[in-house]
Amino acid sequence: MSTKIGFRRRLIVAILLCVAVGGAVVRHYAAPGSTTRDIATLLMVLWVPIIGNVIAWLIGKWPRRAPAAAPPGFDALGAFTPGALAEITFRKPALPSQDTPIAPGEYRCALVLDKEGFSARWMVPAGDALERGKPAALEVEFLSPAVALPRFQPGTTFRVLIGDSFVADGQILQLRPALS
Question: What distances in angstroms separate CA 122 from CA 53, 69, 131, one per listed residue?
Fold first, then answer.
């Protein structure tokens, strides 16, 4: 904030506070029920926005905690290291115009068992495209394999959640040995 604006704000606060104090003094000496007392009461009300501004200024000066660190993501893991081989069948979309093959690349999702979700990613190999409605064997990497792999044993069925929609159903075919 520029010092010119800050100075003007402080000046306005000081003037309004003086007017409110002046209203309190006039109200004290005015006769009850008179117009002068009523106007002085209105002048006293000017302290309300001033106190609000002072409180807002104090809150602005209050030291804040540092933002929480972001949880680790796949970017920190580096190269794709599959933890399981899964058969995934992508659901047909509601609109026929969206019924396009899944293009090659990396996809991030949550694999959902009952009410638990596990962050995962899977790859569609280059030069390949997956057709919706047909099962495809894909390698899956879990963000936290130590937590997820005991729950995803061969034969386990799951749903694939991307964003807020379930886009596919799957089943674990086999676990991949961990690289040491």
Answer: 53, 26, 15
